[in-house]
Automatic annotation (TrEMBL), chain A:
UniProt record similarity statement: Belongs to the SIMIBI class G3E GTPase family. HypB/HupM subfamily.
NCBIfam families: hypB
InterPro entries documented for this protein: CobW/HypB/UreG_nucleotide-bd, Hyd_mat_HypB, P-loop_NTPase
UniProtKB keywords: GTP-binding, Hydrolase, Metal-binding, Nickel, Nucleotide-binding, Zinc
Gene3D superfamilies: P-loop containing nucleotide triphosphate hydrolases
Pfam families xrefs: cobW
GO biological process, one term: protein maturation
Keyword GTP-binding in record: yes
Organism the protein comes from: Nitrospirillum amazonense
Domain CobW/HypB/UreG nucleotide-binding, chain residue ranges per copy: 37-194
Molecular function GO terms recorded: GTP binding; GTPase activity; nickel cation binding; zinc ion binding
Matching PANTHER family: HYDROGENASE MATURATION FACTOR HYPB, HYDROGENASE PROTEIN ASSEMBLY PROTEIN, NICKEL CHAPERONE
UniProt protein name: Hydrogenase maturation factor HypB
Taxonomic placement: Bacteria, Pseudomonadati, Pseudomonadota, Alphaproteobacteria, Rhodospirillales
Keyword Mitochondrion set for record: no
TrEMBL record, chain B:
GO biological process: protein maturation
Protein name: Hydrogenase maturation factor HypA
Molecular function terms, GO-annotated: metallochaperone activity; nickel cation binding; zinc ion binding
Residues that, per the record, bind Zn(2+): C73, C76, C89, C92
Function per UniProt: Involved in the maturation of [NiFe] hydrogenases. Required for nickel insertion into the metal center of the hydrogenase.
Stored InterPro entries: HypA/HybF (IPR000688)
Family statement drawn from the similarity comment of this UniProt entry: Belongs to the HypA/HybF family.
Keyword Zinc: yes
Gene name of the record: hypA
Ligand binding (Ni(2+)): H2
């Protein structure tokens, strides 16, 4: 009965996740929701940037946040203090969000049509690159305290991102971080990437980031695949 | 570690197959891992043994076929092979290259009883 046999599977190891991500993407497209997946190392300033972004966009269009980063358990509370609805995903030991978790979070959060959904991923520049959540764009945040070689050390993430925000530019006078070199390294792994410099602390450079969001949102609303990164 | 998450996905896929294809033991697992998939093959081998413990694939032999990275160079307008994501075109040195192959992470086949 138990004879050896060969099963030719040819199955994508991440196929299940890709299925969940595709379902999320279809749902976002139908509702005209722009979903952005924010990825970075721990402490690059994702939550701070989100809080400032939400405050600046308040009243312009509805925004909602899925919090996956548990570096500080209070991230979702920090977001809610801006008035935007937020839900914290409990990843436990998990080092990344996946399409299934995000699908359930969207069920609970139920963001309105034509809104912008920000997803703060777990602080990790490795696996979040491989796990599609159904977002329109990955936005990678690189802070100036991290070193210019990050894009070369984590090429998969910087290749997957459509936009890189270089954050904490207010600290530049105190550091020897070479912004041009960091940008050149990001372009080495992704020649089409958009790069913007911001300070979530002082608000410097935020206007260009907000314009990028507005452009991407219009693309999401028009139901076409977003070209905001081009 | 990233490779652990990959191994957990492999285990889920194998256990699903065990239910639908009615087998109780996997003797060999053959994976296809692209050079640009971001997976460290050595870490994957280590993670595989740890993650498969207690599963139908606990004693399975792991075989990994590594596929090369390929990219389309815009200036040259030809397909070139690259070893890493940030490698320039080996012909012209440009970074205007678009990855076209070597990102795959697949279970090719299972030998089961
Ligand atoms: N100087 C400076 N500090 C910042 C900036 N953005 C964030 N931070 C600080 O960096 C630390 C980590 O920020 P957080 O938003 O929690 O990072 P996350 O882990 O990526 O969510 C906090 O102490 C922030 O106050 C910035 O633009 N400039
Ligand atoms: Mg955070
Ligand atoms: Zn992970
Ligand atoms: Zn479910
Ligand atoms: Zn070339």
């Amino acid at each position: 009965m138990s004879q050896a046999r060969l099963i030719q599977l040819e199955a994508d190891i991440l196929g299940k996740n890709n299925g969940y991500a595709a379902a999320n993407r279809a749902r976002f497209a139908k509702a005209g929701i722009l979903a952005l997946n924010l990825v970075s190392s721990p402490g690059s300033g994702k939550t701070t940037l989100l809080c400032r972004t939400l405050a600046l966009l308040a009243g312009e269009f509805p925004c909602a946040v899925i919090e996956g980063d548990q570096q500080t358990s209070a991230d979702a509370d920090r977001i809610r203090a801006t008035g935007a609805p937020a839900i914290q995903i409990n990843t436990g030991k998990g080092c990344h969000l996946d399409g299934h978790m995000v699908g359930h979070a969207v069920d609970h959060l139920n963001p309105p049509d034509a809104s912008v959904l920000f997803i703060e991923n777990v602080g990790n520049l490795v696996c979040p690159a491989a796990f599609d959540l159904g977002e329109a764009h990955k936005v990678a945040i690189l802070s100036v305290t991290e070193g210019e070689d990050k894009p070369l050390k984590y090429p998969d993430m910087f290749a997957a991102a459509d936009l890189v925000l270089i954050n904490k530019t207010d600290l530049l006078p105190h550091l020897d971080f070479d912004v041009d070199l960091a940008m050149a390294n990001a372009r080495k792994v992704n020649h089409r990437v958009r790069l913007l410099q911001v300070s979530a602390r002082t608000g410097e450079g935020m206007a260009a980031w907000l314009d990028w969001i507005r452009g991407a949102r219009l693309m999401a609303l028009s139901g076409r695949p977003s070209q905001a990164a081009e | 570690m990233h490779e652990m998450a990959i191994c957990e996905n492999i285990r889920t896929l194998i256990e699903e197959q065990a239910r639908t294809q009615h087998f109780s033991r996997v003797d060999r697992v053959c994976l296809e891992i692209g050079a640009l998939s971001g997976v460290e093959v050595e870490a994957l081998r280590f993670g595989f043994d740890v993650v498969m413990r207690g599963s139908v694939a606990a004693d399975a032999r792991l075989e990994i076929v590594e596929t090369a990275g390929t990219a389309w160079c815009l200036p040259c307008a030809v397909t070139v092979s690259i070893g890493r994501r940030y490698d320039p075109c080996p012909r012209c040195g440009s970074h205007q290259v678009q990855v076209t192959g070597g990102e795959e992470m697949k279970i090719r086949e299972l030998e089961v009883t």
